[in-house]
Amino acid sequence: MSEFDDDEPITLSAHALAALQEFKTEEKTRLEKFEQLYQESEDKFDQQQAPKNITIDDFKEDWQLSQFWYSDETAMILGKALLEGADEDTVVVIASAPSVYAAIKQLPQDEVPTKHIYLLEYDPRFKVLAGNEHFSVYDYNKPNDIPSHLRNKCHRLLIDPPFLEEECQTKSAESAKNLLVKDKTSKTKSGDLKYKLISSTGERMHEVVLKNYPDTKMTDFLPEHKNGLSNEFRCYANFEGFYWKFK
To answer: N or C: which end of the chain has fewer CB within 10 A?
Structure first.
């Protein structure tokens, strides 16, 4: 007979059982809250609104989709950088970075100069966050399938390609070209440039990013993630401002 009987039931220690129960309780609570938020959003979609009490923590990361949420501080800095110097006519698009959109929703209304802020994301759950009017399902593999109301209408763009692969980065850059306005010289009412581009991605994509966005440079801002993502991330932009300088 072997030392371990295959028919012997596996038992967990008291500590492991407590940890498992805590995980199940937290997961149940999270799912119940999400269901409530979804119902609230369904009730408000007719008014083109979305509930305001949603945070990125209400959405569990799906690693199959390469979802890794930014830390709260990073998401807020990226969001504020997009809005810096904007006016009520500025169109802002956030592609594949829902934690940044969620951070902007947490800002007081007087710190958000424009209502034209849109979220493009492959995961349809995020319609709950942005609402019908401001959310579109986006697949980086289909860069020409940009919503017609945003095609070459975007003044400010943050794009975070989901995969650290050249093909994904290149197709995401094609999406950016289809989103961004052609005029890069117009200014907001405060005198700031309307056209601003941010690409946040892994450091090893450096050459690919600069090839796809030749008007951007690496900045000294280092994006961080909530769950200790090991890949070194960098922020590339075509502008300097309060939140970063060129490196």
So the answer is: N
